[in-house]
# Entry
Amino acid sequence: MEVTGDRDGLREACEAARAEGQTVGFVPTMGALHAGHRSLIARAREECGLVAVSIFVNPLQFGPSEDLASYPRDPDRDVALLERAGVDVAFTPSADEMYPSGRPEVTVDPGPIGERLEGGSRPGHFRGVCTVVAKLFGLVGPSRAYFGEKDAQQLAVVRRMVTDLDLPVEVVPCPTARERDGLAVSSRNARLSPDERQAAPCLYESLARAAWLVEGGERDVGVLKAEMAKRVGMEPLARLDYVAVVDEDTFEEVDRLRGRSRALIAAHIGSTRLIDNVPLRPGGVSENPPRD
Ligand code: AMP
# Structure
């Protein structure tokens, strides 16, 4: 595996693979790698000739009072994990390498999807995400880029950016990896105390309850949201940020369930902010739909 912190090094490695006719697959991450990241990499490994993974905690997507400084970092362990996962190129740039002139003057406007929900709670977050993803796409030139449904709104924003800006890459969505008790695997889970870790599955339980109600015929989103909030409200260590039900494609909130939709939740468990979501399929819920 080639490990480089250098933009030119990354660009050259990917160009060489393309010149040999290989498909380039790309998995952008912020490191502190876990089973969720591994599942994206495994899918890329199956489908692509060269697999590139970036590890970069992108300052642009963190607000001033967010956890940029304390975001979990473990570069040596991450590089060893990427090696074992059969990755070809690991890109581990510094912030100066990515932003040599400081904050970029030209950034990518994520549009209305980027203002709602996570964008409302974290102003500027999706502008930071879109800007770094566009830069990374420019360096890697991937045919396929792999994103987790765990961050469903990020996936929707990136898809929209790729469509609206005609970027020549296929965005591949990958299902959420979960712990045995349903908690979505996340780098931030490492910061939970034992008591908080016990409380954290309340996010998934509230989503699972919504999915169960939908399977039973419930279509009123007001009822679904009240039930979700109730489950989190029973947990003394949890503080709800939002619950929402959106149309899967437009990511607009809906009042009644008609087509493919998604239930979303964000909550603080102690001082750690967690997010999760599940698909809602009127007529049947499938967390891990078969690949097409
Ligand atoms: P992050 O390092 O948190 O920025 O995540 C990098 C990529 O991994 C993003 O596309 C995430 O959506 C994805 N990811 C994070 N957690 C999970 C998970 N539990 N299951 C599947 N994908 C995930």
